[in-house]
């Protein structure tokens, strides 16, 4: 049963990871087409997004794998044969729980250690994207930077990464109507200094500066002109997804507490879902092995939503950290224990005395 369950789990996990990767690729390909990320980082960002989503993929894959195997055993009367032969529930459940413990250890490592590192890597790539903003522009499309303050367009790019027929619009906020600078140039290239400040060096063009609707525009022709773009933004201090679990555990902030409890909830939920998959996965003999799958998925969705709602309650101060997300796991574990106990004949009904 261990081998069959492991094989089923691998297939389900591969399918879910493939779907997650496809969603990530479609998202980042769209961003690349819009000029928001470089094309050469799309695959890396999609792969890192898969790591961030394993906290959902791992628990649901374990639940479905065990339910499918238990359903097959019941359908083929193998479960009934095992129990009729005197095999106890502990022996039957042992391979399922052993696999669940191994997967929980792996998922816990991914959630507690690897996922924050993956988020930091995504942030680093994002910072590089900001630093190479102009290089990520798709020729023939308008792009905006610095929260819309800078609009940019280039008709083409040559092999030396030099842009041709460039249009730049920079908005300078001020009291009253914003002052605007419009620059057109035949060519442009990007320059980055040691402070990671990005400067667009334009050649042979015109600069128009003024306030729309007013007549005091300045018009200047130049051979070379630099337009300073904002430096890449650093990783924000409140990016809890990128912080290590140990750092979060040292914080008294509600969001930090919620985040590290959610990370620890991943391996806990895997083991609890493995327990509850055994009783709810049982189906009548000759019934379809997929009969209870929808029930399992709905149960997982409710479980996951209660965990996330508890995390939000911690952040807003409505739920003390000592209760936190733990109460959800305790309730689900209690439900699993009750269902397993019922399978084992508890509570046992007293035998009726036969009248003489």
UniProtKB/TrEMBL annotation:
Membrane topology: Multi-pass membrane protein
Pfam families assigned to the protein according to its UniProt record, in alphabetical order: LptF_LptG (PF03739)
Gene Ontology cellular-component terms listed: ATP-binding cassette (ABC) transporter complex
Coiled-coil regions, chain positions: none
Keyword Cell inner membrane appears in the UniProt entry: yes
Cellular compartments annotated: Cell inner membrane
Stretches that traverse the bilayer: 9-30, 42-70, 91-115, 264-281, 293-314, 326-342
GO biological process: lipopolysaccharide transport; transmembrane transport
UniProt record similarity statement: Belongs to the LptF/LptG family.
Subunit (UniProt): Component of the lipopolysaccharide transport and assembly complex. The LptBFG transporter is composed of two ATP-binding proteins (LptB) and two transmembrane proteins (LptF and LptG).
Designated name of the protein: Lipopolysaccharide export system permease protein LptF
């Amino acid at each position: 049963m261990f081998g069959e369950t492991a094989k089923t789990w691998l297939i389900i996990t591969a399918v879910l990871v493939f779907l997650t990767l496809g969603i990530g690729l479609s998202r980042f390909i769209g961003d690349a087409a819009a000029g928001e990320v470089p094309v050469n980082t799309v695959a890396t960002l999609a792969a890192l997004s898969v790591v961030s989503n394993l906290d959902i993929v791992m628990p649901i894959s374990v639940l479905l794998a065990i339910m499918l195997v238990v359903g097959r055993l019941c359908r083929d009367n193998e479960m009934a044969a095992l129990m009729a032969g005197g095999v106890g529930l502990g022996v039957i459940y042992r391979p399922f729980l052993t696999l669940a413990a191994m997967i929980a250890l792996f998922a816990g490592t991914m959630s507690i250690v690897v996922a924050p590192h993956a988020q930091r890597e995504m942030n680093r790539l994002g910072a590089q994207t900001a630093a190479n903003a102009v290089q990520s522009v798709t020729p023939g499309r308008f792009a905006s930077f610095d929260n819309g303050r800078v609009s940019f367009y280039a008709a083409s790019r040559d092999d030396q990464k030099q842009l041709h027929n460039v249009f730049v619009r920079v908005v300078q906020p001020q009291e009253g109507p914003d002052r605007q600078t419009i620059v057109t140039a035949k060519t442009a290239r990007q320059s980055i200094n040691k402070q990671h400040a990005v400067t667009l060096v334009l050649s042979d063009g015109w600069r128009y500066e003024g306030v729309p609707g007013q007549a005091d525009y300045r018009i200047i022709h130049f051979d070379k002109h630099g337009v300073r773009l904002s430096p890449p933004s650093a990783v924000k201090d409140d990016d809890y997804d990128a912080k290590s679990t140990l750092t979060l555990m040292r914080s008294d902030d509600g969001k930090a507490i919620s985040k590290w409890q959610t990370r620890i909830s991943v391996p806990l939920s895997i083991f609890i879902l493995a327990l509850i998959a055994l009783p709810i996965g049982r189906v009548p003999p000759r019934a379809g092995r997929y009969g209870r799958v929808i029930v399992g998925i709905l149960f997982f969705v409710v479980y996951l939503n209660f965990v996330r709602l508890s995390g939000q309650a911690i952040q807003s101060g409505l739920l003390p950290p000592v209760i936190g997300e733990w109460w959800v796991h305790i309730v689900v574990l209690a439900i699993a224990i009750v269902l397993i106990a019922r399978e084992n004949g508890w509570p046992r009904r007293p035998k009726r005395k036969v009248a003489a």
